[in-house]
Input
Amino acid sequence: MHFLDNKTPGESQPKSGIKDIKSVIMISAQLRAARAMLNWSQSELALRADMSVETIKRLESMPDTLAATKVSTLNAITSAFSDAGVEFTNGDAPGVRLRKK
Output
């Protein structure tokens, strides 16, 4: 899983820039954006994350953060995206991007 913290120069952050899912606040718009970048349907994400389409729909419709979501659910989703080359960015500008190859 890749979570990049958008720190300004001089601020401390782990050398790798990768954060653990437990310390990252993800928003529902990031899930929708990551799916769009990969041109995945909700069904495709559900299949790759080994969960129901209803779970994906529920998460994507949540207002703002997914803080109340089980860590195991977020891990499964972010692992599926990471395997496809997606990184989630956080900090002042939460978003998603494709990893450089």
User: Anything to note?
Assistant: The CA atoms of residues 47 and 84 lie 13 Å apart.
